[in-house]
Amino acid sequence: MTDDKFILMSLDDDRAKSLAEVLGNKTCKKIIEYLSETTEASQKDLADFLKAPINTIEYNIKKLLKSGFIQKRKNFFWSKKGKKIVMYELTNKSIIISPKKSVGEKVKSLLPSFIILFAGTVLLWVYSRINSINVENNLNIGYKDEIVGTVVNNALPPILSPDINPLWIWFFLGGVLALLVFSVVNWRKL
Q1: pTM for this prediction
Q2: Domain of 29?
Q3: Buried b vs exposed e over 54-85: b needs ≥16 C-beta within 10 Å?
């Protein structure tokens, strides 16, 4: 049992068919109504209340479980004959039916995150470049001055300097990894 507060399904989902069957079934509606008035009930309790055969109740409970309207309780009882008696309750979930999204729409929903990640990476790269140039200027380390023709400490141009902080690279790789993990875990919800 998950702790989600809703059940999300598309019209193409198999559960949508079972949901429609449940909503069109009088016995299922009566079971839902009874469980809404009581906190839990067994198949025998439902059969006694509805004055219906136990196999009819069992059939309808299977439909209700499949559609997500009810769930089995964790607690159960043992009958005098040693049979396990399962208790059922309504799920406290909202059912949301939405159109199915294509893969392109799902990827498009991740696009703003990638744009923000790219912008943050560029800003971090610019910051590291400015910081690197400032450090080189403060240490009097430079590169070949084309106008004067002198070489100061034989240093590389700032764009190729090995002293550049690789923080922006780690930021970008970490962001891409986080987005990939998020999209894999939440692919159905996107």
Answers
A1: 0.48
A2: 6-97
A3: eeebeebbebbebbbbbeeeeeeeeeeeeeee
